[in-house]
């Protein structure tokens, strides 16, 4: 891993206020997706331009397993949130996917605590309305900064990779925050036990479990630490089970995807 002096704190415009209108929450069969319109913008922090925020979604495991898409020193967090942003010079996502830096995704680890996360609660209380694939509902906008590690925003890691769901386009500038946010056990359970990959009218309900992409080697790509992040010792190719080593590393997600 290389320290990069250009990786300062990102500029998140509109994240600290409640946007007007309504946000759409949907179950697309792969995840729970919150579409947030185009009023928020991400720039700075070494990003090659300004990016408009489109949506955020979640990855999780099951009642018995963790489900973050990135791992740190073999440790997989209970869940992970991705905030997806499209470069403002592109008219649509299709055009952005043809650009190696067309999308900028902010990845946030989610850990568990005993207290509810008030901001995540805006989403949690609506999850029963999108339990099945194809269902949608509306969420009143809230300051999105509440779902980010606001006291540690300058601590993150950066690499160039791909989407983690089909079509897995190599078009993403990844920003992975070092410090997790916390939700309660009961809030996590709403994801791991209350969301289905099947439609409500189907003959059999299929729980949506383990909707994370499997870990892949770095394939010699650089991982950069921001100015304030811990400088991790990358050990690509190491096993992804917990070890007794104090060394921390990240194995990136690159070439294959899960369906």
UniProtKB/TrEMBL annotation:
Cleaved signal peptide residues: none
Cofactors required = Zn(2+)
GO terms of molecular function: carbonate dehydratase activity; zinc ion binding
Gene Ontology cellular component list: plasma membrane
- Top enzyme class: lyase
Sections of the chain in a coiled coil: none
Q: Does the keyword Lyase apply?
A: yes
- Catalytic reactions of this protein: hydrogencarbonate + H(+) = CO2 + H2O
InterPro entries in the record: CA_dom (IPR001148), CA_dom_sf (IPR036398), Carbonic_anhydrase_a-class (IPR023561), Carbonic_anhydrase_a-class_CS (IPR018338)
What keywords tag this UniProt record?
Glycoprotein, Lyase, Metal-binding, Zinc
The Alpha-carbonic anhydrase domain covers which part of the protein? 1-227
| Function as written in the Swiss-Prot or TrEMBL entry | Reversible hydration of carbon dioxide.
The Swiss-Prot or TrEMBL record describes its family as follows: Belongs to the alpha-carbonic anhydrase family.
Q: What is the protein name stated in its UniProt record?
A: Carbonic anhydrase
Q: Which gene encodes it?
A: CA4_1
């Amino acid at each position: 891993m290389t320290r990069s002096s250009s990786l300062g704190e990102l500029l998140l415009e509109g994240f600290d206020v409640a946007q007007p209108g309504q946000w759409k929450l949907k179950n697309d069969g792969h995840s729970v997706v919150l579409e947030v319109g185009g009023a928020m913008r991400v720039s700075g922090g070494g990003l090659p331009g300004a990016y408009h925020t489109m949506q955020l979604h979640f990855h999780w495991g099951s009642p018995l397993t963790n489900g973050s898409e990135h791992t740190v020193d073999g440790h997989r967090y209970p869940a992970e949130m991705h905030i997806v942003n499209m470069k403002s010079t592109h008219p649509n996502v299709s055009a952005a996917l043809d650009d190696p830096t067309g999308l900028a995704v902010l990845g946030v680890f989610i850990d568990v605590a005993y207290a509810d996360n008030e901001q995540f609660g805006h989403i949690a209380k609506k999850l029963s309305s999108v339990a099945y694939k194809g269902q949608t509902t509306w969420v009143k906008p809230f300051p999105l900064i509440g779902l980010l590690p606001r006291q540690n925003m300058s601590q993150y890691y950066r690499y160039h990779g791909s989407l983690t769901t089909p079509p897995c386009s190599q078009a993403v500038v990844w920003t992975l925050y070092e410090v997790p946010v916390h939700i309660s056990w009961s809030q996590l359970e709403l994801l791991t036990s209350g969301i289905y990959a099947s439609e409500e009218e189907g003959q059999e309900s299929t729980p949506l479990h383990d909707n994370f992409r499997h870990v892949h080697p770095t394939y010699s790509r650089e991982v950069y630490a921001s100015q304030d992040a811990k400088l991790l010792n990358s050990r690509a190719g190491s096993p992804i089970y917990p070890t007794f080593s104090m060394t921390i590393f990240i194995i990136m997600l690159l070439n294959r995807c899960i369906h």
